[in-house]
Design brief:
Helix content is 80%, strand content 0%. By secondary structure, the chain is an all-alpha fold.
């Protein structure tokens, strides 16, 4: 909501807090699929945000993190179509970010 309203600093604050909490949850239980997926999504959102702010390095770093987690999810649950879709999106987004440097 903050991002849509143009409150980018507030949006970033929430994105970073979500990622921090997601990382804590994931590290406390790395086998929890929901925690891993939530962390991957939060990294992807941060990558999109930083790309929009022209911070390509941070955008690439976060998208790489998201891609790793989405790949693990896809490999562990190959029949779950959403994980395959998220992984492919992360691969494509990372390629686009690297090309745009």
């Amino acid at each position: 909501t903050h991002s849509s309203l143009g409150n980018l600093e507030k949006a970033l604050q929430f994105y970073e807090e979500r990622s921090k909490l997601g990382k804590e949850l994931y590290e406390s239980n790395p086998n929890n699929v929901s925690y891993k997926n939530g962390l991957a999504i939060s990294y992807a959102k941060l990558a999109i945000f930083y790309n929009a702010q022209d911070d390509k390095k941070l955008a690439i770093d976060y998208m790489r993190e998201a891609q790793v987690l989405f790949k693990q999810l896809h490999n562990n649950f190959p029949t779950y179509v959403e994980f395959e879709k998220y992984y492919k999106m992360a691969v494509d987004d990372l390629e686009d970010l690297i090309k745009g440097q």
